[in-house]
Specification:
By secondary structure, the chain is an alpha/beta fold. The chain has 20 helices and ten strands. The strands form two sheets. An eight-stranded parallel beta sheet has the order 1-2-3-4-5-6-9-10, with helices on both faces. Strands 7-8 form a two-stranded antiparallel ribbon. It binds 2'-deoxyinosine and zinc ion. Zinc ion binds next to strand 1.
Length: about 400
């Protein structure tokens, strides 16, 4: 047996070479470990995460006749390809089909329950899932009925996941569409259902031409109510959008925010210079809800290796990893982590850092966030980090190598 397979060599090398050895030999997570790692998801759209098979069944049950494909596998491929255009506007067009089949109470309950189950199955322990209630009224439901149906679905999904051995907690974020004019009404709805399953508010939709300041009345209302909100900003549009979201609207978090990179200069000697806005975002620990795969599809980044998350993590921004739309990107939290591990060589330490960052940035009360970090996330990663010890011991049993 080669000496580099010995656990004693690894201990020795770790002492001698420091963290680099730790990451290479012990902490590079396998796919299975990534799936089992406790993950936290802050940016996931309910209408962007349906199972293709469910869309087909709901279309049949509700008489929705506009699906581009009725075979679930082909439909899944259709969504991924149609969303892959490089433009946010075209990406958003695909939602007409998911929203189209989410117009009844039964459909909303089912989609929300499956969402919670799918996330839990993927190892997500805490999720904030968003949707726009104003987009689910075509079948005659009222705004409150929509919220209650989705809440009911999340509770069902949490229960079923628990029965299958996966614990998850899901909170809803109510989104207002930025091109519409119902933001204040939706903000009031979010406030009414606070502590009843809704943990905050968001605005989404095409960014260019629809600055967040159009909805100042909603944000000011929420601030007066001491409520929480995030704003999609700095995805398809750059720094002015981020600046408005923070300094005019007072967002607690940035949905995407990836274009903050435009205010960061990497000089030839490798040193880094932050502009005023990037400094503010980092100094104030503003959470960035980064969504790598989604950014590749809408043209906000060219590849995983070039994605700004690498630099933002190195510079200790409050970066978090998210799925955005699992259906349109054919992704999951595990898959996002897989890509980042491959692109940046991330270790379990890095994945824990992202997960703790996300949990710190969640909209639930501080004591609950702390308990999730200390009682769920850290022990989960500690367990995974210790696995190499047992594997190596088993494979070297009988070996008499010593540290010297
Ligand atoms: O990445 C996005 N940017 C802006 N808007 C988005 C994104 N993903 C989904 N949406 C929109 C389309 C959905 O119908 C809506 C509510 O979830 O939010
Ligand atoms: Zn989004």
């Amino acid at each position: 047996m080669g000496i580099d397979a010995s656990p004693f060599f690894v201990l020795y090398a770790r002492r001698r070479y420091g963290a680099a050895m730790t990451s290479q030999h012990q902490n590079t997570p396998s796919r299975d470990q990534i799936r089992r790692a406790p993950k936290v998801l802050l940016h996931d759209h309910l209408d962007g995460g349906l199972r293709p098979g469910t869309i087909v069944e709901l279309a049949r049950d509700t008489g929705y006749a506009h699906l581009p494909e009725t075979d679930p596998d082909k439909l899944g491929v259709w969504f991924r390809e149609a969303a892959d255009s490089g433009s946010l506007e075209r990406y958003l067009e695909t939602f007409s089909h998911t929203v189209g089949v989410m117009q009844t109470r039964e459909a909303l309950v089912r989609v929300a329950a499956e969402c919670a189950e799918d996330l839990a199955e993927d190892g997500v322990v805490y999720a904030e899932v968003r949707y726009a209630p104003e987009q689910h009224l075509e079948g005659g439901l009222g705004l409150e009925e929509v919220v209650e149906a989705v809440n009911e679905g999340f509770r069902q999904g949490e229960r079923r996941a628990g029965e299958n051995g996966h614990r998850i907690r899901v909170g809803a974020l109510l989104t207002a569409m930025r091109h519409a004019a119902r933001a204040l009404e939706i903000a009031e709805l979010a406030n009414r259902y606070r502590d009843l399953g809704v943990v905050g508010f968001d605005i989404a939709g095409a960014e260019a031409g629809y600055p967040p300041t159009r909805h100042l009345d909603a944000f000011e209302y929420l601030k007066r109510e001491n409520n929480h909100f995030t704003i999609h900003a700095g995805e398809a549009f750059g720094l002015p959008s981020i600046w408005q979201a923070l300094q005019w609207c007072g967002a607690d978090r940035l949905g995407h925010g990836v274009r903050i990179i435009d205010d960061i200069q990497v000089l030839d000697d490798g040193s880094v210079k932050l502009g005023r806005l990037a400094s503010y975002v980092r100094d104030k620990r503003i959470p960035l809800e980064l969504c790598p795969s989604s950014n590749l599809q809408t043209g906000a980044a060219d590849s995983y290796t070039d994605h700004p998350i690498g630099l933002l993590r190195r510079l200790h921004f409050r970066a978090t990893v998210n799925t955005d739309n699992r259906l349109m990107s054919g992704t999951s939290m595990s898959r996002e982590f897989d890509h980042l591990v491959e692109a940046f060589g991330y270790t379990l330490e890095d994945l824990q850092w992202f997960s703790v960052n996300a949990m710190k940035s969640a909209f639930i009360p501080f004591d609950e966030r702390l308990a999730m970090i200390n009682d769920v996330i850290k022990p989960g990663y500690a367990e995974l980090k210790s696995e190499w010890l047992f594997k190596q011991t088993a494979s070297t049993s009988g070996s008499a190598e010593s540290e010297d």
